[in-house]
Every structure is written in C-alpha cells, then in structure tokens.
Amino acid sequence: MTEPLHTSSNGGAERGPNAAFESEKTLQTTTRLQRFDSLHMEAGKIPGGQSHTAKVGWATTLHLAFQSIGVVYGDMGTSPLYVFSSTFTNGIKDTNDILGVMSLIIYTVVLLPLIKYCFIVLRANDNGDGGTFALYSLISRYARISLIPNQQAEDAMVSHYKLESPSNRVKRAHWIKEKMENSPNFKIILFLVTILATSMVIGDGVLTPCISVLSAVGGIKESAKSLTQGQIAGIAIAILIVLFLVQRFGTDKVGYSFGPIILTWFIFIAGTGVYNLFKHDTGVLKAFNPKYIVDYFERNGKQGWISLGGVILCITGTEAMFADLGHFNVRAIQIGFSVVLLPSVLLAYIGQAAYLRIYPEHVADTFYKSIPAVTAIFQTTDKIGNAYGIAVVFVMFITTLLVTLVMVMIWKTSLLWIALFPVIFGGAELIYLSSAFYKFTQYLPISKIETKERFLFRYVEPKEYRVFRCVVRYGYNDKVEESSRNWRSLVMENLKQFIHEESLYSQSSHSLEGESIKEIGGVTDPTSEVQDAMSSRNNSDQHTTEPRNGCMDEIQSIHKEMGNGVVHLLGETNVVAEPNADFLKKIIVDYVYNFIRKNFRQPEKITCVPHNRLLRVGMTYEI
C-alpha cells in the first residue's frame, strides 16, 4: 500500500513523520468498513458477550435455590421410599449385604449427581437451558451436523459464538468436527439418539409421579390394614390428578408452593435418619469404605449385579437438575443439591440401613417401619422401578456421550479428561443400565434469540425494485408472536431501521473511497466522518434517529404499500408417489406420510396468518 505523501516547502515530496500512523489508521478504518452483505451487518450489531444468561446476585440465587427444591428435587428426595425394597426384592439373606448396598448408594450419589451433573454437565448448558436437546443444539452450532440445513454464515455472528486462536486442541476439535460433518450416518445416529433421549425424559416424567406418589400413599397400609393394593392405587391416582392440575399455574407458583413442603420433607427424613442411626446401629457408617462394595459382589455374584436395578433408583430425578436448568441457574441448582438434598437423602438411607441391620424382615416397608411414631397399571413400586430405571439411566448415558462431544469440540479439554469422563461415568451407567434391562422383560439450534438479532434483511437487486429478503430467526424456546398484526409491525420497524443504517453505511463507504489518500490542502481526515457515521449507527440501536433524505422516499413508499395491505406468500412442498410406484410405496407416501404431515402444526397457524391474506406457492415432487 502506498504511503500518504506530504508536500515540502520546496515543492518536493517527502514522507511525514506521522505517515505510517495515518496509513495504519486509514487501513484499519477501511478494514472495519469493508463491504459486507447486509445480513452480516445486521447480525453483527450486538457487540461482545457469549451468552444471553444474565448474571444474578446471591440474594436472587438463594431465592432460585429455594424454588428449585420444590421443582427439581422432589423425585430424588422421595427415593428413600422405595430403594431398599426395590433392591432386596427377595429379602435380606445376610445383614452384611446392607453395608454393601449402602456403600453402593453413597458412591452412586457422589459419582453421578454430585460430580458428573453438579460440577460438569451443568456447565454444558445452551445459554442457560439444559437437557438432551439443548446439548444437541449446542453441538449443532459448532458443527454442521443438523439434519436440517438451517445454518447460515450470518449465524456465526450471533452473540452466542466466539473466535479462538489456533492451538493443538483447536486443531483436534476441527479435525473431529470435519469427520462428523462428512459422515451422514453420524448425523442420523446423533439425531435419533437425541430424540430417543428426549422420549426417555418424557417416559421419566410419566413414571416419576407414579412411583413417588404410590410409595407415599403405600404408608397408609401401616394404619389401615383393610385397604387393598387396588384401593391404594386409586387414592394415588386421585392425588396425581390434583398435582397435574396444579402444574398449570407455572413453575414459579409451583416452586413457591412446594418449596416449603419439600424442604420440610428433607428436614424430616434427615432427622429420622439421625434418630435411627444412633438408636439402632452406628456401625453402618463403615459403608463409607468402598471395600464393602467388593465384598457384596463377591458374596452375591449375579444376584448382586441384578440388584443394581434397584440401587440406581437412588438417583432418579438426577436428569431434572440439567433439564430444568432453564427455570433457575447453575449456582441455584448446585446449592439446592449440595446443601439440602445430598446430606438429607444420605442421612435417610443411612438411618434405614441402621434399622435394617436390626430388623431385616421389614425391608419391604423400611421407610414407614423405621419412622418413630401408570399407577393403576403397575400397582406396586417394584414393577414401576424396573421401567423407571431404564428411562433414567438411558438418558444419563446419552447425556454422557453428548457432553463428551462438547468437551472435545467446544470446551477443548485435554485428552486425559476427555477419556476419563466417558470411561468413569459412562462405564458406571452402562453397568446400571444392563441390570435394569435384565429385570425388565429448527427455526436456529439456539434456545433464545434476542429481539435485536431476530431480523436479518438484504436488498434483492436491483435496488430500484424495492424488494427485500427478510430472515426471521427464532430459538426453540422462543414464543412466536401471537398476533399477525404485531408481527408485521415488528418486521416493518426493523426494515425501516435497516434502510436507515444501510443509507448511513453507503454514505460513509462512498466518502471513504473518495478520500483514502490524504494530501495537504485537502479538507478533513476522512476517518472523522467515518467515525461519525459509525457512532450514529451505534447510537441508532438505542435511540431512533431521523432518517436522511436519501432513504426518506423509500420509507414513505413502504408506508404507502402497507396501507394497501399485506399478502403472505407461503412456500409449500407436496410429495406424491410416482404413477408406476409399487403398492407399498403408494400407501406410505400418499397416505401415511400425508396423514402425519397434516397432523403437524402448519406454518400459517404458528404465525397466525389470516386465510384471506395467504397465498401458497410450492411444488409437487414425485418419488
């Protein structure tokens, strides 16, 4: 690049002392204003920041932690109702087995919910949202593995993304990323695994209330011996109906309502555990020695492995810590688990173990006997537990696999930790899963899109036609505007903003091109005008400024056309079987596929487009 020349007093040309500085400054300005597609310009408006998750103070965090107790930990907190009875289904033949099972419970709770979820998995959240689908969304943003090609170059400029310097870990992540992107089979498998895990979470949600409520109601038998199992199931069903009716009031109200109740429950089971420990047998504290786990399996062999299907129920509800993260925050979940649930539940199990050392024959009703003073189908908690264990551990294992991908591609952790994570946690989960199986015969992949990042515009050339392309981006947790009128207003406001900014951009770029070389006798440094234009553009995000005359006609034209009415063009694709297709293909394509397609929510229903303003445009494909 030619350096700017200054004319000396004798008419010769010489390089001024600030020439290099001014050259660098002009280069930086030119680079900053190099011509991008308007979609790039719009997408890059939000500076800095890698997450939309707001930082909250300790008062708010403790407030959320209290609410999380009533929403997240109800399942894990009620597991002492049925774990020992589900583990020792055939009774306790050796009281030393109690120490082995107690040791298994201690280290299962420490290994999976505490270490894996509290300190590792919760960090793999998708901008504050958790769950299997959130992990899939997070991975899809760093690699083109989504089955739906919904990624555009502009999406990399959303404030969820960041650039990194080259390193060995970055190169390794890039190599794995390329392998995944070039493997169609991997994309399909990953998608199916995500859907399967999501289905398991739904199954978990069906079985959780059943086993918890049925176990709780089962205590009525202690004082009402005449009640049959069917009558107890009926009472549990009535309670479940009431609980599901309450859920419609939302997480906030449910958290406030059940928080004090569940907290009281934790205090109660912890106190009962301490009482039983000192009253019956303090020797159960030896279970903190993992040697008793080895002794348990040596003594019981295959039956010890089968019993793991009952032990795993001690961590039911663990996935809720991650799946419900969007309602709270990481710190609140960690506090709720570490401070309240962990000590309370462990004390409850320890107290029950102490009681069973003295009264092993009461294992079927340990919880109620030790106190001082889907439901209709399964009937008992033993059968529910078999199905429940599969759903719980399957989701946890899939989460382990997806978090491993996150560690490789996104966190870029060292190889040692990447290897240890699936080996330790995945290995433990596979052992539990095998036991449970034996006993049981798009809009973008981002959870939320900020309003300022939602609309992207570009001109459809030639500009004189005044035709625009608009991309509206929604995250999978964003709510689509209910009123089509409000939606049109949002589009128009953002379109006017785009025209205004495009006008400023064009004027500043034109000014820079005409004055890139500064000479004595010239007027002003072109960078000042550019900086004014850029400042005006940045301020327009916070304060709407009056558009310049150059774009006034265009905006007035848009207002005029808005007055004439809006017609929505909806792209539509129809698929039919070829005339010479075989009978099976015709049935699947013409009937099964079309039946499923018609039962999905239609785009015009999602965006609330009125029928008299809708024009469908599409193609029919024969396959």
TrEMBL record:
Where it sits in the cell: the answer is: Membrane
One Gene Ontology term of the molecular function aspect:
potassium ion transmembrane transporter activity
Question: Which segments constitute the K+ potassium transporter integral membrane domain?
Answer: 64-375
Segments passing through the bilayer: 98-115, 188-207, 227-246, 258-278, 304-323, 335-355, 387-408, 415-438
Q: What's in the keyword line of the UniProt record?
A: Ion transport, Membrane, Potassium, Potassium transport, Transmembrane, Transmembrane helix, Transport
Q: Extract the signal peptide range.
A: none
Q: Which Pfam families match?
A: K_trans (PF02705), K_trans_C (PF22776)
Annotated segments matching region Disordered: 1-24, 523-549
Q: Does the keyword GTP-binding apply?
A: no
Family in the record:
Belongs to the HAK/KUP transporter (TC 2.A.72.3) family.
Write down what this protein is called. Answer: Potassium transporter
- The species this protein belongs to is Oryza sativa subsp. indica (Rice)
